[in-house]
Amino acid sequence: MTNITGILSGIGLRRAIGQALAALLIAALALPAMGMSIKERNQLDLSKYTVNDPNASYFDVPARMKLLQQTENPMLLTQVEELSTGPSCQQLLAIPPLDTKIRIPGFYPSPKAWRKISGPLFQFEKAVAKLAGAYVTSGDVYYGRCMIRFLDKWARHDALLNFYYESSQPQAWFSTESMIFSAAEAYSVVRPAVKGMDAEKQRVDQWLKDLAYKHKAIPGQPNNSCCNNHFYRRALYASMVGVLTDDDELFRFGVSAIYSALHDLTKEGALPLEMKRGRRASHYQNYALLYLIPNLQIVSRQGYDVFNLEVDGHTIKDAVNFAIDILEDPDALGDLAPHEQYKGFLKDDQYLAWMEIYLSHFDEPRLEPFLRTMRPIENRGAGGYVTLYFMDPAAQQQAFTAAQKRRARASRDQE
C-alpha cells in the first residue's frame, strides 16, 4: 500500500492540510446559520411591548364593515352576499367539543389518515371563521353571540387541553396550535360588539389563556420546531390571546418570533430553518410568512411599527422579497436548496393569505399575479377571509372563473 504521507514533503503536507482546512471553513461559512436559540430569545429585552388595546382585533373591524357597506366592488359584494347568511347556531352548538386526548398521525407519513382524523379540527376552525365572516358582512350581532356561546361550550369542557405529545409524534401539538389562533382571531372580531355575556367571555378568555400557556410550555426541538415555522404559529396565537386577555407575557412571546425571524435571515433574505426542507424550501419560506405576517399585523394593531422593524440589518421586506424571487425563479435559491422545487401549494389559495395582508401595508406589484387568479383568498386559521378583510377594492373587480384559473395555472406551470 502506498504511504501517501511519506510521498509528501513536510512543506507539501502542511500546505495540503492547510488547503483542506480552508476548504472546510469555506464550506462551513457557506452553510446557512441556524436559528436564534431559545436561550438567546429569552434574553431579548421586549419590555417596551405591552398590550395597549385588548379590544383591537387583527384588522379595524368597524372601519372595514363601513367600507363593505359602501363598496361597489363586485367581488367583495359577492362575498358579502355569500357570507351574510351565516351558519345555524344550533347546528354549531351540537358539535361535540374535543375534550378527550387528541392524537393525530404525522401528515407526510400518513396524509390520508391525517386528513380523516383532523376532520373535527377543521370543522371547528371553519365554524369560527364563518361566524366572524357572517358578523362582518351582515352586522348582525347574533353571530357574535353565537361565537361566544360556541366557544364557551368548548371552554366549559376544557376542550383541546388534552393532546398527545412526544418529540417523535408532535402532530397533535401542531394541529391544536392552529385551532387556538383560529379561535382567538375569530373571537377578536366579534367580542367588542357583544354586550353582556360577561361570564361567558371570562370563561372563553381564561380557556384561551390556559391553552396558550400549556401549548407554548413545550419548547420544541432545537434547530427545528423550537424556532421554525411552528414557532411562528405558536407566536401567532400568543400575540392574539395576549391581546384579548391583556397578557404582556404572551404578547411578548409573540413579538419574540418577529425578532427571531429577522435575526435569522441570511443575506439573501432566506429563513435558514426553512431552507433545510430541500425541495420544499420555497414552500416553507412561504409557509413561515403565512404566520409571520399576520403576527406582525396583530402587533402593529397595538401601535408598534413592526412592519418596518429592523433587526441585524434586516426587515420583513427582505424575507418577502426573497420569497417572491424564488417563487418566480428557483435559481434564486443559489446554493441554499435544490432548484427543482415543489410548487403545488401555489394552486391552493390558503397559502397566499399573507400576501393580502402584506399588500395592505406595502405596494408590491410582484405579489398581484399570484393573488389575481386565486382571489377571494381564505385561510380558516391565518386570517380568515383575508380578501374580504384586507384587499383594496381598487385592486381587482372580478374573481377568475374556474376555467380561467385552470388556464392560468397551466400557463404558470409551463414557465
UniProtKB/TrEMBL annotation:
Pfam families: Alginate_lyase. Residues 103-332 form the Alginate lyase domain. Keywords: Lyase, Signal. GO terms for molecular function: lyase activity. InterPro entries: Alginate_lyase_dom (IPR008397), Chondroitin_lyas (IPR008929). This is Alginate lyase family protein.
